Amino acid sequence: MTARKKSKRTAFQANQEELKLRCAWLYYVEGMTQEQVAHNLGISRLKVLRLLAATREDGTVQIIINSQAQSSVALQRALEKHLGLFEATVVPASDQSEATIANVVGYGAARYLSEQISNGLSVGVGWGGALQACMRSLTWQEVEDMTVVSLLGGLTRASVHNPSSVAWRLADFYQAELFQITAPVFVPDTSLVTALWDQADFRDLRERARSVDIALLSVGDLSPQASIFRRGILAPNEAKSLRDAGAVGDVLCHFVDQNGRVIDHPVNRRVMAIDPTDLRQVPKVVITSGGVRKAQAIRAGLLATGARVLITDVAAANALLELPPIERTSS
To answer: Where does the Sugar-binding domain lie (predicted)?
Structure first.
């Protein structure tokens, strides 16, 4: 390498280091949003995301929480025993607002997923507020041959809240190959669902979904605050019909009863998403949801998918302990 080339490379590295520090300062110290940081620095939001991840990875930014966590550990162990889990993560939340719960549970999910990332990993991904928040706190690392499978269809209009957007963001962040259900998450009639799943590409995707190493999911309830109703994916008046049919919530946009069974309802016959029961053979199924109002839906989601890992908040954990325990068969 010539002296001139070496000098240019050194200057580029110095500029990148300065950009990383400025990005971290604006975001963590001045409290700007990622969009505001991108505008201030004249770079893309994706570049901001990667720079922030780099500051956490290389130790430029260190988040230290000083706490005696005996109570959280005890709550986690109680939850694992009560629900037959391999692992439970319980995070504190200052309140039960939608945004707070999504952010803290999403942070917990990001810590968990970042530790699982490795070469050749395949990840199936659902959607929801916690999973959207999760994408903001991932730790960057170089990874090879990683694949991401979106477990549900999307919307015909572009939106940050598109059900398929979480998988896209995860694949983009780690530069992984992405497999998507390129169809609306809800289609007009059952015959179209059948026709789409009969297509070779969709059959292959379903098999990929059943064979992922990790499935990262969220669940929804039937309240007006649930994303599926609040975002207009389903009409609010359909909640009553679903509730009358025995539903307590949805997993991958499939509505399930308190025992995790997919209910017989017209909405479930129109959904283009992986059936939650198809994930029961996946080695690690992770439910990431919080909030007291979702307790029944979380329990149903664990039963529907066979999930053995749960990431939730303290209030939801306590509410879950008041529900009947889950008896698991040995595996």
So the answer is: 70-322
